Amino acid sequence: PNRSGTRLQAVRVSFVPIDLDLPLEEQHGGKFDAILHKMTEDILYLSKSSSTDYRSSSGAIGDANSCDYSSKPSISEQARRVGRLTEYKANHPACCLVDHPAHVQALMSRSEIARILSKCLDGVTTRSGIPASTPRFVVVKSNDLPQIQRLADTAPFTLPMIVKPLPAAGTKASHHMMVVLNRQGLRRVHFPCILQEYENHGGVLFKVYVLGDTVRVFPRNSLPNLPRGEQGCSEHPGYVEFDSQRPYPRLDDFGLTSEKDQWDPKIWQPAVENCQRNLVCPREQAQYTDTQAKKRRVTVQEGPTPNTNTSPRKAPKGAAWHNRNFGG
Hints:
Elements: E1 13-17, E2 34-37, H1 40-48, H2 77-91, E3 96-98, H3 101-105, H4 110-120, E4 137-140, H5 145-154, E5 161-165, E6 176-180, E7 193-197, E8 204-211, E9 214-221, E10 239-243, H6 265-278, H7 282-287, H8 290-293, E11 297-300, E12 318-323
């Protein structure tokens, strides 16, 4: 039974593949309770496009009322596929679309992600009063080396810097990153990208996943702590490149050594325990008493981390599920 004492019943869920090159109404009876998709490549293409054949008058992706995708042969295949998703959602409001292309579009640019996060954290502090913030950044707008050097010199932060491609998903290159240690390393910077403040974080990052009342926290190996300021070394090129989907470089890759292993559980375990104690969403705090809130399930995964030695398999164009209890 749930918190209200109502006994829960098992729900039969059926997952079926869908083809966005065909009308959704013609597949599996045309009735879906939810649609999951991984359309990042198409949405990225549309985000870069100067065309307006997939946009509403406000500039947002997927206003189904503004365009009939099935009757416009001149629009791109990407716009047609994304359009089928948004049209189906508009015609079937009860269907849960995860996620709407208009929401995914905001996550296609790292500069936009950083701007949104910075805005969301404005005025937010920890319980002890420490302000919460995101690393500062500047956007590289050309491949002109003197301009890149001036941008690095006038940035509100100092070396080392982490260089990230502007596109955040949709291409293999979006995961190719670099840490610049000195001005010599700036020669390797390529447009379009951002120069971001390098924040030391103990060589550990935390992946937090929330589904309803279930919270899972996964500690993951991350970039090592680096000394502040420009690092000069005649035997080092001044930068370290890496793929964010593969194991991160270690301290010796930067030409540095340390006596302490930064992946020591004694270092990151207190942070995991603090997350376990305090991670309660405001909605629950408003609905339940402190005693009830403590019953929230928080699962901490301390075992092996997900395999990052290989790139993830390419996701299908889409999937949907039927809820058999509701005749979907």
